[in-house]
TrEMBL record:
<protein>
    <submittedName>
        <fullName>TIGR03085 family metal-binding protein</fullName>
    </submittedName>
</protein>
<dbReference type="InterPro" id="IPR034660">
    <property type="entry name" value="DinB/YfiT-like"/>
</dbReference>
<dbReference type="InterPro" id="IPR017519">
    <property type="entry name" value="CHP03085"/>
</dbReference>
<dbReference type="InterPro" id="IPR017517">
    <property type="entry name" value="Maleyloyr_isom"/>
</dbReference>
Amino acid sequence: MTHARDERTALCDLFDRLGPDAPTLCTGWSTYDLAAHLVLRERRPDAMGGIAIKPLAGYTASVQNGLKAKHPYPELVGMVRKPGGVYGLLPSLDEAVNSLEFFVHHEDVRRAQPEWEPRELSDDLERIIWKRVASGARLMLRKAPVGVVLHRLGGGVALGGPRGGAKVEVTGRAGELLMFCFGRQRHARVELTGDPEAADRLLDASLGV
């Protein structure tokens, strides 16, 4: 098993356990919506553009809603469970692209439930996550209103946000820093140090790719 498959399987097991109406950290989305999004992402490349490009978002939303109308929730979860499209043909690509995608969405479901706690991640997954955070910090934090210094517990520093002006230091494990940088700031177990007003602005900023 790869990390991508592990996270995919764990997310689908959680989907099955919680049912279609459970909340997620994706604003306005239930578990049913998130399952449809993941199927769209892998099996409907014609509709993927709206995930990142606002003028195309209407079409993407209509396709996502169409998937929900066509497929009962258990069927959609089954489609998520098995890599689709090119990811089903190239396991190495699935691992490269989907390890973080499914980690974040797994946490989107976990952390929307009451009394969640951070998971203990393997050293290998922590290392992979930190490598991606360190290399992608500038991109993920490009909309940060203040400078950001990421400190990984266990070693490692990455920078993002404006190069001048106020700076906020964000300290945590690699998985928590990834959730922070992906726009889940208030659901990441991290420590912020610096000017309190700058920290509040950072917590409310739109971050991520």
